[in-house]
Amino acid sequence: MSKKILCKKLEKELPALQMPPMPGPKGIEIMNTVSAEAWEMWKSHQTTLINEKHLDMSDPNNRKWLLEQMEKFFNNEDYESASGFKALD
């Protein structure tokens, strides 16, 4: 049975990620506060943003902007949506 956490995005107890989704303290924080379901939602939204905004992920400014959007997404704040898409909350 998988570990459950209180997901800050979906505001309910859900299965946790099995491992940090990124290296370092940020990955551990996400693993402890964001459910696997919410992480999958973010991955889909992130892909849409990268494609729609034509982000070059080798550009540090684009990576910083995307991380800011991730924080807003998981904290249920206003985050960037691609044109023609509504935010999934």
- Quickly give the CATH architecture: Orthogonal Bundle
Question: Quick one: biggest sheet?
Answer: 2 strands, antiparallel
Rg, alpha carbons: 13 Å
Order of helices and strands: EEHHH
Question: Percentage of helical residues?
Answer: 40-55%
CATH superfamily: Fe(II) trafficking protein YggX
Mean pLDDT: 92
Would you mind describing this structure in some detail?
This protein has 89 residues and is mainly alpha-helical. It is built from 3 helices and 2 strands; from the N terminus they run ββααα. A two-stranded antiparallel ribbon has the order 1-2.
Task: Please give a handful of descriptors for the protein shown.
about 90 residues, globular, YggX-like, about 10% strand, two-stranded antiparallel sheet, 3 helices
Write the layout of secondary structure elements.
Layout lengths: L3 E4 L4 E4 L8 H10 L2 H17 L7 H15 L15
Antiparallel strand pairs: 1-2
A few lines on this structure:
The chain is 47% helix and 9% strand. The chain has helices at residues 24-33, 36-52, 60-74; strands at residues 4-7, 12-15.
